[in-house]
Specification:
It contains 15 helices and 12 strands. The chain is an alpha/beta fold.
């Protein structure tokens, strides 16, 4: 235990947090069991360390530990937590808990046994938590997303910017933009964000493309097979499918064509798409009223965020798809996104939205909100695309 405490102290001393994530304010700190889900690279470990630093600085009853630690694997998660509790522990920050076999059953046992202990744990975005039979009704779950364009601007400029709901943007974007432009010229940073700004690790990595490709491969080679129980011989099929989606500029879901292209059944293609959607490699769009559990196939599919799209396609990225990937990555965090024939997307069942390049907004359906790329200001129903990055 002493070595784990020493590791905790060293990590906190070395931690120089560059940005305070908005999730820190949304978490119900009165909850006894808190889950933070996220894909590789979005900063889950740093979030736990920042949580400790902000709310439990100098508190010896708070401990960060990676659940993949050999000591825990040998001793057992429940027995480790029991020992921590008996030594006066009050807040346990468990990283990568899904890598411990039977983690859900043992966390529930801890919840039932130690009524005044708080456990905050992180897991892969692939893991189902709310519907887990051991944790259902006991856990508060939150998603940690990559950096929004707003957060990226705060990192780059050292200034602070508020976030806005999409409804606020639709009704007041001209005033909102005026306030933002007094502090920064967003378009001067926009291309950099599309290339590498979604993942906080860009501050430390010399080659963000290599880093992203490494994370993509780890997700496909380890996370999905481990959690979804896919045989290793099918890894090549997963990679082929992801690349086929990335280079398809139509973004339409043609299951028969994809099935033939990678040599697996239609049902397997649908399963693989769902796995990669849960891993936040893909965003799947369904008609309103449908989702990945409805049994219906999605209507469209996009690479989850523009950084991933750039890393996979390199210099073959379609500009229109890149714009849409950006919009989806920013809005999907807190809005319901659906397919609609009326425009490109339907936001929260209320706003049909067309995403296009500068000067093309007039061609969109008259009832649609238009998000135009490379304009600094908008007017009326035409809103600058970069502003979508201020939703969180």
């Amino acid at each position: 235990m002493n070595s784990l405490v020493a590791t905790h102290d060293i990590l906190l001393k070395e931690r120089t947090s560059s940005i305070r994530r908005g999730l820190m304010d949304r978490i119900n700190r009165g909850s006894r069991l808190i889950a933070v889900k996220g894909s590789r690279g979005v900063g889950k470990t740093n979030f736990l360390l920042d949580f400790s630093k902000e709310f439990h600085a100098g508190d010896e009853s708070c401990l960060y530990v990676n659940a993949n630690n050999l000591f825990i694997v040998h001793d057992g998660l429940f027995h480790f937590v029991e020992r921590f509790y008996k030594l006066g522990g009050k807040v346990l920050l468990l990283d990568q808990v899904h890598k411990y076999p039977g983690w859900d059953k043992e966390l529930r046992a801890c919840y039932d046994a130690f009524s005044d202990l708080q456990i905050v744990f992180t897991s892969s975005s692939i893991v189902r938590i709310k519907s887990n039979p051991y944790l259902q009704g006991k856990v508060d779950m939150y998603n940690l997303n990559g950096l929004s364009f707003r957060e990226f601007l705060e990192l780059e400029t050292g200034k602070s910017f508020p976030f806005y709901s999409f409804q606020d943007m639709v009704g007041h974007h001209e005033e909102i933009v005026d306030a933002i432009l007094k502090q920064v010229r967003p378009l001067a940073h926009f291309d950099n964000y599309l290339e590498y700004g979604y993942y906080p690790i860009y501050l430390e990595q010399k080659s963000h493309t290599d880093y992203l490709l490494k994370n993509i491969n780890l997700t496909l080679e380890f996370d999905i097979p481990y959690i979804c129980q896919i045989e290793l011989k099918y890894l090549k099929k997963l990679k082929q499918l992801l690349y086929a989606v990335a280079v398809d500029d139509s973004c339409n879901v043609n299951i028969s064509r994809l099935s033939a292209a990678i040599g697996v059944s239609r049902a397997t293609v649908l399963n693989y798409l769902t796995y990669m959607h849960n891993a936040r490699l893909l965003t799947l769009l369904y008609e309103e009223g449908s989702d990945d559990e409805s049994g219906r196939k999605p209507k469209e599919m996009y690479i989850h965020n523009p950084n991933l799209l750039n890393a996979i396609c390199l210099d073959k990225v379609d500009a229109n798809v890149l714009r849409k990937s950006f919009f989806l990555s920013q809005l999907s965090a807190f809005s319901r996104m659906n397919y609609t024939e009326q425009a490109d997307f339907l936001v929260d069942g209320r706003y049909p939205v067309a995403v296009c390049q500068e000067g093309k907004g007039a061609k969109a359906d008259a009832s649609a909100i238009v998000m135009e790329d490379m304009i600094e200001r908008g007017k009326g129903r035409i809103i600058p695309l970069w502003l979508a990055g201020f939703t969180y």
